[in-house]
């Protein structure tokens, strides 16, 4: 989603991905807060040993920067959602803004890839809300790559 990725398709993609990611991050933030408040709390996304948000939320990886990871999602997906709505409203955003958004998406994708590896390989559990975030980031990264290829072709 560099500067050439404009228009209603980009706006809808950003709006839908931003809304889904923000919803998942909000639920994860709430569940993490409840778990921090009460270590015996069972999050709504803990179904069994394999589908277990509890194992993931209690791991060191769940607070990679010293605070709960979903807080990054609250901020990042709010920006993505807002950008989508602004584009749908017809605003033209500067190239530097699109480049900054692309940088944020790439940084988010790299972090999500690391979290996916940690969840699947190291912790050995899956969190449904985390998987929503993974899917949203895959879609955003794919759209970003497509936009970059289109820009390169002219």
UniProtKB/TrEMBL annotation:
Keywords, sorted A to Z: Disulfide bond, Membrane, Oxidoreductase, Quinone, Redox-active center, Transmembrane, Transmembrane helix
Keyword match Cell inner membrane: no
Vitamin K epoxide reductase domain segment(s): 7-148
MF GO annotations: oxidoreductase activity; quinone binding
Membrane topology: Multi-pass membrane protein
A GO-annotated cellular component: membrane
Database matches in InterPro entries: VKOR (IPR012932), VKOR_Actinobacteria (IPR041714), VKOR_sf (IPR038354)
Keyword Transport among UniProt keywords: no
TM segment ranges: 71-89, 96-117, 123-145
Compartments (UniProt record): Membrane
CDD domains assigned to the protein according to its UniProt record, in alphabetical order: VKOR_5
Signal peptide stretch: none
The family this protein is said to belong to: Belongs to the VKOR family.
PANTHER family, per the entry: VITAMIN K EPOXIDE REDUCTASE DOMAIN-CONTAINING PROTEIN, VKC DOMAIN-CONTAINING PROTEIN
Name of the protein described by the UniProt record: Putative membrane protein
Organism annotation: Janibacter alkaliphilus
């Amino acid at each position: 989603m560099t500067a050439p990725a404009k228009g209603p398709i980009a706006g809808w993609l950003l709006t839908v991905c931003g809304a889904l990611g923000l919803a998942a991050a909000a639920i994860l933030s709430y569940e993490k807060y409840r778990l921090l408040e009460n270590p015996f709390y069972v999050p709504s996304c803990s179904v069994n040993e394999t589908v277990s948000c509890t194992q993931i939320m209690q791991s060191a990886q769940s607070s990679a920067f010293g605070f709960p990871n979903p807080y990054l999602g609250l901020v990042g997906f709010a920006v993505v959602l807002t950008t989508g709505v602004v584009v749908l409203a017809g605003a033209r955003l500067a190239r530097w803004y699109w480049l900054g958004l692309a940088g944020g998406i790439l940084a988010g994708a790299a972090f999500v890839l690391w979290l996916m590896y940690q969840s699947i390989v190291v912790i050995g559990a899956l969190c449904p809300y985390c998987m929503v975030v993974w899917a949203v980031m895959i879609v955003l990264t794919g759209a970003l790559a497509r936009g970059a290829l289109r820009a390169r072709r002219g």
